[in-house]
Amino acid sequence: MCGIVGVVGDDFKVSDVVESLKRLEYRGYDSAGIAYVKDGKIKVFKSVGRIDVLKENLRDRLEDEISAGIAHTRWATHGAPNDTNAHPHTDCTGKIAVVHNGIIENFRELKALLEGLGHKFRSDTDTEVIAHIIEEEYTGDVFEAVMKAIRKLDGAYAIGVVHSDHPDVIVAARKGSPLVVGIGDGFSLIASDITPMLRYTKNFIFLEDGDVALLEDGNVRIFRIDGKAIDREVRRIDLSESVAEKGGYKHFMLKEIMEGPQTLVSAMTGRIKEGFVRIPELDEIDLSNISRINVVACGTSYHAAMFFKYFVEQHTDVDVSVEVASEFRYRRPHVDDKTLTLAISQSGETADTLESVRLAKRLGSNIVAITNVVGSTITREADISIMMNSGPEIGVAATKTYVAQLTVLALLGLQLIKDRGFWSGRHKRILDNLIRMPELFENVLSFSNDIRSVAKKYVNFGHFMYIGRGYGYITAMEGALKLKEISYIHAEAYPAGELKHGPIALLDENFPVFAISPSDSLYLKTKSNMIECKARNARIISVGTFGNDELSDLSDDVLSVPRVADELYPLVMAPIIQLFAYHMADLKGYDPDKPRNLAKSVTVE
Ligand code: F6R
Asked: Is the CB of 602 under 6 A from ligand 1?
């Protein structure tokens, strides 16, 4: 939640900072602000709303040259989204400005203490205390003051600090919230992730928890919180800036759905050899020696985890338990050194998933993370990280990363099947289907306009019931989540067989059913449930397999995908549920890239 950027060097203008900040808008967008040093003074501008509102308010200053600047896009935690609570926050003198991502847990005590010392607070945020403590500690050296200040903070933070008496300096620190330093020739940068910095540099330092960075133009030094200097590896990441651009699509979400085929290829590359799966990252683990797998994840990643459970339990003797991370971390889970914990998080920064990883580790479990973000916190806490290799996902709703998760999990499942001695012709067929999936995906994506036509018919309905059985239930869960989060339409997901245990009471002509009904081993069962729904006058959109003509008798609208192995229907159907939700949101005039109340990486619990 929240995105921060900072620049220090000779050639920056206000507009550079604002444009960089826009690359992080997916992290939160209820308010935004900037502080920059110009002519030895700090100027601060903040606005409630999107970054474009801030940009408009700055229109006469965008060309101003600055020596250092920090900016922030907010997802409110403490204090309502308004101009005052927007970051940056300043101290009493107006010489110090701070941007912060995270939560300061002891801010009430600190605030009371500071007020007792005469400090005047303007906002309701936890962040403002940071500016005032730095002011309190400042005796002429801003780096020392920040260092002393952060030692007093409990909780999570990534911060950037500027001081008007030190016009060429940014001090940045990280504990629990992501922060990356970009290194250029004569300039340096900070940001919550690399995307805003790609247009300036490809050289990055991923700060570790407890690191404090001192940026003076192009000179970057890293220290630990106890003051000791430390060398951190400078990593070169050769991504082009265009990965974070829309490339002609109306929205990032649409672009990212359309990137599905490439996503599949990237997730499989280097992991299939001589007709079998071999994920090199797993070489250090003996998969034949595991008795249980415990999977923790949230949201879409949780749905991918459920796919893994169904797949692995169907084909091996390994038990797989899957739990929403926010529940797992507060229970007494039965996890030990014979349990492998799999943590799935595209961002690698989800607070509940990270806490679950820490808990499982304390209980003796080995941790394998599946993530998309190089250098993310989870990659540092896990014993092994399997990267999804999808490139940055900017749309807030997970789309291509869901596809990548399913792909990596299918590969992992296939490797387990082989390593535990269950491999058969059936598994060869699944792998063959997976290898062909990019092509099958292209085919499904080409029906985007048909999916939009179906969406047009349903855009005014206020409720949807998504149903499916087996692997179809996974698609139903993910379909309902996508629809509700970006089009704000109430959508429930139920195993089709559960309908008659209560939810069928909801159905009537105003409550359509989205039936995931591929021609798999459970098709006839799902078909019976569709007939029951029809008998309640519910309209039905079915998602089936090409060639199943009876679906048009059973349903009002039919969307179809190519035939694949039962296990892979969640993959080939992913574009259907994603495009349906996308078109519904777009038809309703909502911005699917920035759904209300949501942010891309949920770094608070
Ligand atoms: C839904 C969505 C969220 C995330 C969830 C977990 O489209 O994006 O439900 O899946 O917040 O995020 P990660 O995978 O980053 O841990």
From this structure: yes
Q: Give per-residue pLDDT as tens, 316-327.
A: 999 999 999 999
User: What's the confidence (pLDDT) of residue 293?
Assistant: 97
Active site residues: 2, 600
Q: Residue 298 CA: which ligand 1 atom is closest?
A: 6
> Is the CB–ligand 1 distance for residue 356 below 6 Å?
no
For the stretch 374-412, pLDDT in tens is: 889 999 999 999 999 999 899 999 999 999 999 999 999
**Number of residues that make up the chain:** 605
347 lines ligand 1 (CB under 6 A): yes
- Kindly list the averaged pLDDT for each block of 10 residues, start to end, along the chain of length 605: 92 96 85 94 94 94 96 86 92 97 92 96 94 97 97 94 97 93 96 93 94 95 96 90 81 95 95 95 86 96 98 97 96 92 96 96 96 92 96 93 98 96 97 96 94 97 98 98 97 96 95 98 97 96 97 97 98 98 98 85 71
Closest CA to ligand 1's atom 13: 345
Distances (CA, A) of 452 to 449, 493, 523, 544, 579: 5, 21, 26, 17, 8
For residues 461 and 384, what is the distance between their CA atoms, to the nearest angstrom? 45
Q: How many Cα atoms within 13 Å fall on the side-chain side of residue 349?
A: 29
Instruction: Find the 9 Cα to ligand 1 centroid distance in Å.
Output: 36
Distance from residue 252's CA to the centre of ligand 1 (Å): 16
Q: Is the CB of 125 under 6 A from ligand 1?
A: no
Any residues with CB less than 8 A from the CB of 486 and at least 6 apart, and which? 253, 396, 397, 581, 582, 584, 585, 590, 592, 595
Q: Which domains does the chain have, with CATH numbers?
A: 3-244 (3.60.20.10), 254-435 (3.40.50.10490), 444-587 (3.40.50.10490)
Residues 344 and 323: their CA atoms lie apart, in Å, by 11
With the CA atoms of 166, 168, 169 and 170 taken in that order, what torsion angle do they form, in degrees rounded to the nearest 10? 120
Does any ligand 1 atom lie closer than 6 A to the CB of residue 485?
A: yes
**Rounded to the nearest whole angstrom, what is the distance from the C-alpha of residue 68 to the centroid of ligand 1?**
34
Q: Pseudo-torsion of CA 469, 474, 480, 482, nearest 10°?
A: -160
Question: How far lies 585's CA from each of 27, 103, 397, 484, in Å?
Answer: 19, 32, 12, 9
How far is it, in rounded angstroms, from Cα 365 to Cα 283? 17
CB 273 within 8 Å of CB 431: no
Q: Kindly report the backbone phi and psi dihedral angles of residue 535, in degrees, each rounded to the nearest multiple of 5, phi listed first.
A: -65, -20
Q: Is-contact 538 508, C-beta < 8 A?
A: yes
Please state, in angstroms and rounded to a whole number, the distance separating the CA atoms of residues 19 and 536.
52
**Collapsing DSSP states into helix, strand and coil, what is residue 310?**
helix
Q: Parallel, antiparallel, or unpaired for β 339-344 and 292-297?
A: parallel
Ligand 1 within 6 A of CB of 299:
yes
CA–centroid distance, 299 to ligand 1, in Å, is: 5
Task: Quote the tokens at residue 125.
Answer: 């945020």
